[in-house]
Amino acid sequence: MVHIDILSLFPEMFQGPFGIGILKRAIDRKLVSISIHNIRDYTHDKHATVDDYPYGGGAGMILKPEPIFEAVESIKSDICRKQGVSDIDCYTLPIILLTPQGRLYSQHIAAELSTHRQMTLICGHYEGVDERVPEYLASDEISIGDYVLSGGELAAMVVVDAVVRLLPGVLGSQASLLEDSHVTGLLEYPQYTRPAVHRERSVPEVLLSGNHAQIAKWRREQAILRTLKRRPELLDKANLCSEERQLVERLSTSPGKSAGDKWSGQQLMEENS
Ligand code: ADE
Q1: Tell me, what's the pLDDT at 272?
Q2: Which of 11, 178, 180, 210 sits a CA distance of 20 to 30 A from 238?
Q3: How many CB atoms lie within 10 A of CB 185?
Q4: CB contact set of 53 (below 8 Å; sequence gap of 6+)
Q5: For residue 190, is the peptide bond before it cis, meaning its omega torsion is within 30 degrees of 0?
Q6: Residue in 123, 143, 158, 159 to alter for ligand 1 test, most ligand atoms within 8 A of Cβ
Q7: What is the rounded average pLDDT for all residues in the chain?
């Protein structure tokens, strides 16, 4: 079982997302356990002060280091006690600060985190966190995108969700993981379900054909086409065979078809046949 500790000023925020769907099922089935710790519980003054003015002046309040250090130390000593060890390093226990200054979260990072048996996430708030937290306490800093949230809680939920669905046994079908957008390096192909005709719009013929080789070929082409159209930069790193590379080259350099956005799936298949 994987264990995740989360430090937050707003523990109630997690009740909804962790109490429903795949995350709840993973918790109920003991594939993951999640403890939310209120940073305020680690203060010692009567006002339970967690923030203070920035040295040097400036707008907003900064989260104080003491309660965050104490919370992490308490989590670490619990883990050490349970595991009968005297100390724990950052490979055994990654300590991740959620911050817009962190490295950009990706499927790759989620996969890496999903190999750890435990991790601790620290949700920042207000205008920032005292720099001694990222410098001397956290082993990693993660941002979920180039925008500023009002706190790290939503970011922590995103990180946890993407990690937990990768844990063995969490999803019904492990096979579906392999086809996820960003796992193959490509965006996912379009999916359809019944009815075959909805408001006079039909599902692509090939998907009804029962010809699995043709279906696989169509899906691969659609994934490449969609990636070229929406996220062309992903193709640089995608695992394409030389024919597929040539096709991408042709589609992106043809006059009038520079972004690939004038190509339909049908045109792509004709081009590729
Ligand atoms: N806290 C505020 N904004 C954030 C972001 N984009 N990612 C992670 N944590 C954050």
Answers
A1: 55
A2: 210
A3: 16
A4: 61, 62
A5: no
A6: 143
A7: 93
